[in-house]
Amino acid sequence: MSASEASGGYLAGGGRGAVVVLHEWDGVVPHIRDVTDRVAAAGFTAVALDLYDGESAARGDDADAARLQRQIMRDPDAAAARIAGAVGELRQRGHSKVATMGFCTGASLSLLTSAMYPIDATVAYYGIFAHRANRKITSPVLVHLADHEEFYPSAHRFRAWFEGMSNVTIHVYPGTRHAFFNDTVPSHYDADAASISWERTISFLRQHLIE
Fold first, then answer.
1. CA nearest neighbour of 102 among 63, 131, 75, 72
2. What Å distances lie between residue 200 and 108, 116, 131, 143, 177, CA to CA?
3. pLDDT tens sequence across 68-104
4. Closest CA to 141 of 174, 119, 164
5. pTM value?
């Protein structure tokens, strides 16, 4: 199945395992569509769920991105319910195992949704809602963190929150800043960390969705 606009987002691929890709604060921008295509190319069905219903912020327009992000921050539980609905739709389409993978705001939602609903595997880059009970997650979790995080809690706090949870794996990438995976942000992008984290992510998804 070729990439298409579907199910309130950008849909690509036709693999057995499915992944809901959750965007950063600026929406389903070209970078997120590219990530979704890369997930599909690795052998999965992937959908970038559009939580802003067609809106997105232009690159560098932080004020507009913050405006859009407030839609989620006002009611994260509603966003999590919407994500769970997309997971359910993918299961109805025959994908027995579905993961969530989020970046920044999307990472916070990936973890929150997995704490509230049955998700088969969870990937999170940088973000978390620090006040929520993410220790309720029972599915496998892979977390990628920046060494010098500007916007979210430190790696030390992440490790403390998930201490003793054998289902959670946390990687910290030395010398990196927030959004180190995003190649459209040259000031923060780290090619080596992005490549290593991606290899780990695809291996994790294959292990828990396909093997």
1. 72
2. 19, 25, 27, 10, 19
3. 999 999 999 999 999 999 999 999 999 999 999 999 9
4. 119
5. 0.95
Residue 88 CB partners (closer than 8 Å, separation 6+): none
Question: Scanning the structure block, which residue is given the tokens 């010398």?
Answer: 175
State the DSSP H helix or E strand holding residue 141, giving kind and residue range, or none if neither: strand 141-148
- Helix (H/G/I), strand (E/B), else coil: 18: strand
Tokens of 157: 């706090």
The answer to whether residue 2 scores a pLDDT higher than 80 is: no
Select from 1, 2, 3, 20 the least CA-distant residue to 91: 20
Pairing assessment for the beta strands 4-6 and 9-12 based on DSSP bridges:
antiparallel
Checking if the pLDDT of 132 tops 50, the result is yes
Residue 192 CB contacts under 8 Å (≥ 6 apart), including other chains: none
How long a stretch of residues is the chain? 211
Dist CA 92 CA 106 (whole Å): 23
Instruction: Using the predicted structure, report yes or no on whether residue 5 has a pLDDT greater than 50.
Output: no
Structure tokens at 185: 């942000």
Query: CA–CA separation, 105 vs 22, rounded Å?
Result: 8
**Could you read off the pLDDT of 63-72 as tens digits, one per residue?**
999 999 999 9
The C-alpha atoms of residue 8 and residue 39 are separated, in whole angstroms, by: 18
